[in-house]
């Protein structure tokens, strides 16, 4: 009975709109094959205007992803609950059906802390220490000596997350607990009924839960979008460029075919293989 209820609920919420899985594949390929290469070329160039344009293009690419994800959740929340486009490396990074916002702040924080280490290790500011030698001086030094306002703003963003994330977790846990209590009791009382009334009762339980899940999910997405906006707004163009490059490479790295295949199919998987991909995916999260 429960299976038919969920299938019927999905039919009622589905429409002829494009499946989000197809959109994500196209979005990811555009990120990897178009926006990231363009950003990298502009990073190595000498035009601040071009760099600023490509920073904004990549930022809007991420924002458009979350707006489309919102629409998909409203249209058919079942495809957000069952994300079969995610691989086994990506799933541990997921919080309320998408990337945990702490990934964004941890990445930015790692840039700050990495430059603090470089500053203490190399006081003479020899320009030859640039991690990418063909990049302009402004890029190589972008995260050196960050402003007090940037550090203070990062602390404010992190403090806000530490307050909001537990609240959303609790709200979702209450919704799940309430759904389990209701659906078990309703299923037991209706399990021997042959009419559609039992299905209607269980269907209402599913509907109530889905509505609350979507509400929490949309709030979480607003949080993810706002964290990205706050970090990029607080950073300089050069800092934002490196941050978005790092975030893009992080996502691309976790979909690297060789790495995913090694993790999913080898019981004797060597973590030395992960180290080989660290530079590629810029896995800076703590």
UniProtKB/TrEMBL annotation:
InterPro entries: Seed_Dev/Stress_Resp_Reg (IPR051886), TGA_domain (IPR025422)
GO biological process: DNA-templated transcription
Domain of life: Eukaryota
Domain DOG1: 17-264
Record-linked Pfam families: DOG1
GO MF terms, alphabetically ordered: sequence-specific DNA binding
PANTHER family reported in the protein's UniProt record: DOG1 DOMAIN-CONTAINING PROTEIN, PROTEIN INAPERTURATE POLLEN1
Designated name of the protein: DOG1 domain-containing protein
Organism, as annotated: Trifolium subterraneum
